[in-house]
Design a protein that fits this description.
Largest sheet: 7 strands, mixed
Strand order of the largest sheet: 4-3-1-2-9-10-11
Number of strands: 11
CATH class of the largest domain: Alpha Beta
Shape: globular
Order of helices and strands: EHEHEHHEHEHHEHHEHEHEHEE
Number of helices: 12
Helix content: 40-55%
Number of domains: 2
Structural class: alpha/beta
């Protein structure tokens, strides 16, 4: 296998906010030698209420910026972007771009036949998971619920708020009533709520976190392209946001185990701001 010089370049991971940290954690676990450029579009979250045209525009801007950072691969750590923009933007960039929908759908059909999907309003409306699941297994039944309050609650660090538990009960009730056996966490923010979801769901329901499966796919792609980093030395992770870097750092500390250094970036000028 030929290993290219670009193998030392970082992987780009992007989301609207801290949700993509669930993908970042999987990169650190499955690909510990890889450096990462993480971007959170916090100035424009939540994406779930945005129009498809807005989402596509944002993704183009982020990917152009990531090209300037010399990433060797981009992972859309955002189901809304994956559902609405992936197929459109792929043709315009000369680097592999991976999304969450297909890996998540394929994992779900391997777990059960009555599959629930919780996601943002935009992802649910796109029906991307319904199509991907039914293409993978025409016998599967899919039940979707949009959960618009989850992302703002997580970004506000209100996971342990009693209100969040009540909201989760309300969202999951129809899925429990139809007897799902599998639940796809169709937004990268939602694994942060796994503890709460487990309280509400029957014990036999399997949770599917697409983050682990998209990183598995990324690992296979890097192998095929000879771009996997086998470099000795410590891999780095650099954090960038479009909004308030201090706020992102404080919220993300819960999952990173430390306070990250976060820089603010202007997507329009591709220049770092102080």
């Amino acid at each position: 296998m030929v290993v290219h010089q670009e193998a030392r370049f970082p992987i780009g991971v992007f989301d609207s906010g801290v949700g993509g940290l669930t993908v970042l954690q999987e990169v650190h676990r499955q690909l510990p030698n890889e450096s990462v450029v993480y971007f959170g579009d916090t100035a424009r979250l939540p994406y779930g209420k945005r129009s498809p045209a807005e989402i596509i525009e944002y993704v183009y801007e982020i990917l152009h910026w990531m090209q300037s950072e010399r990433v060797k691969m981009a992972i859309m750590a955002c189901n809304t972007s994956s559902a609405l923009a992936l197929d459109i933007v792929r043709k315009d960039f000369d680097l592999p771009i991976l999304g969450l929908i297909l890996p998540g759908a394929r994992a779900a059909v391997g777990k059960g036949k009555r599959i629930g999907v919780i996601a943002t309003t935009a992802t649910v409306r796109s029906e991307a998971y319904v199509r991907a699941i039914c293409e993978s297994d025409p016998q599967a039944q899919v039940f979707q619920v949009d959960c618009p309050e989850f992302v703002p609650l997580i970004e506000s660090d209100r996971i342990n708020d009693p209100y969040t538990l009540q909201v989760a009960r309300d969202y999951l009730r129809p899925l429990v009533e139809v007897g799902i056996d599998t639940l796809v966490l169709g937004c990268t923010h939602y694994p942060h709520l796994s503890g709460i979801l487990r309280i509400i769901l029957p014990g036999h329901v399997t949770l599917v976190n697409p983050a682990s499966y998209v990183v598995k796919a990324a690992s296979q792609e890097l192998d095929l392209m000879g771009l996997k980093c086998s470099c000795s030395g410590k891999a780095s992770t650099n954090f960038f946001v479009s909004g308030d870097p201090d706020r992102f750092a404080q919220v993300s500390r819960r999952w990173l185990g430390k306070l990250p250094v976060v820089q603010k970036v202007s997507l329009s000028s591709l220049e770092l701001l102080s």
